[in-house]
Structures are given as structure tokens and as C-alpha cells.
Design goal:
mainly alpha, Arc Repressor Mutant, subunit A, Tetracycline Repressor, domain 2
């Protein structure tokens, strides 16, 4: 896997800077009390540059680059691993590499996504795209069609477990760890979910 070039690294740095300033300003002034212009000024970019990275103010909280990283990790898992085991291994790989660095950012963004009605509505819309991404990934991994009922069930199970883990994470005020919660949910499904 090749490392990103200078241009990609600079773009990623600018995107992170915009998001960091947005989170700081929203913590200070609230979501509604923070404007795109304020975020752009704090990040030392123009509003037009802001909109090149994030089409709307909601997107600065909702968008991240983690799904493609998880998809790549899932596709690297050995073909003989069953779907849930492959997903658990991919999640361990991705979280192991990134979680310590991104944990607080993900927590603050997730909390906002669940608390701000406009963000929560957009989040639910985005879940359909994420569902399709994981159905497509599992279809590619298994040689089945993305419309296969088992492939869709797998994507739905993952989405449901992720949502349950996020709710638990927020309920614990971040005391629990998101990777552990997701892995525990997947382990329950893997073991037959008896209760």
C-alpha cells in the first residue's frame, strides 16, 4: 500500500484543521451559533475553500475518511475467514492503527451528530450509503451480488451493531471504548446472540 503524496497529505491536513476548528467553535458557541465564515476564518481558509472540502456545515461534522480504510482492511482479510470474523479482524486492524489518535475527535463529532436534530437527520440519510458500501464490500469479498439477502443481512447487522455501540458509548459518557463495544456486539452475533 503506497503512502499518500504531498498534495494528498496537505489536503488531509487542511480537512483536519477545518474540522478541529469547527469542533472547537461549536463547543464554544453551539452548533447554531457557529457559522461557516467563523470556521473558515479560524482555520485560515476562505469560505470557498471550506466548501471545497465540505459542501455544507453539516458535512464538517458528518464526513470522515474512515469507511474506505475499513473497507480496504476488510478486503485484505483471508478469504477463508467467515464474514463476522473477517470484520472483527479488519476493525481491530483499523482501530489499532488509528483509534488513539482519533478517539476524542470521533467522540465529539458523534455526540453532536446525535444531539443536533439537523445532523441526526443527515446522519440517518448517510447510513444508507454506508449500508450500501458494506454490502458492496462483502459482495466483492464473497463473490456474491450486493443484492443477495445474506450480503444485505450482513451489512444490516454491522450497521445495527455499530449504532448500538455508539449509543452505549455516548451513554457511558465515553468511559467505555467504542472498538470494544463494537467487537463485543459482533462477538454476540458470532456466538448466536442468545439471551
Amino acid at each position: 500500500m503506497s503512502s499518500p503524496g504531498l498534495r494528498e497529505r496537505k489536503k488531509a491536513k487542511t480537512r483536519r484543521s477545518i474540522q478541529e476548528h469547527a469542533l472547537r467553535l461549536i463547543a464554544e458557541h453551539g452548533y447554531e451559533g457557529t457559522t461557516v465564515e467563523q470556521i473558515a476564518e479560524a482555520a485560515e481558509v476562505s469560505p470557498s475553500t471550506f466548501f471545497r472540502y465540505f459542501p455544507t456545515k453539516e458535512d464538517v461534522i458528518l464526513r470522515d475518511d474512515y469507511d474506505p480504510i475499513l473497507v480496504a482492511a476488510l478486503l485484505r482479510q483471508p478469504a477463508e475467514l467467515p464474514p463476522i470474523a473477517a470484520l472483527r479482524a479488519a476493525l481491530r486492524e483499523v482501530f489499532g492503527a488509528l483509534y488513539a489518535e482519533i478517539r476524542d475527535d470521533i467522540y465529539r463529532r458523534t455526540k453532536l451528530q446525535m444531539e443536533v436534530p439537523a445532523l441526526r437527520a443527515r446522519l440517518m440519510q448517510g447510513q444508507l450509503a454506508t449500508f450500501q458500501t458494506f454490502a458492496d464490500t462483502m459482495a466483492a469479498r464473497s463473490g456474491r451480488e450486493p443484492t443477495d439477502p445474506e450480503v444485505r443481512a450482513f451489512a444490516g447487522v454491522f450497521m445495527g451493531i455499530a449504532m448500538a455501540a455508539i449509543v452505549q458509548w455516548l451513554d457511558s459518557d465515553g468511559k467505555d471504548e467504542l472498538p470494544d463495544l463494537i467487537d463485543a456486539g459482533l462477538a454476540l452475533v458470532e456466538d448466536g446472540l442468545r439471551f
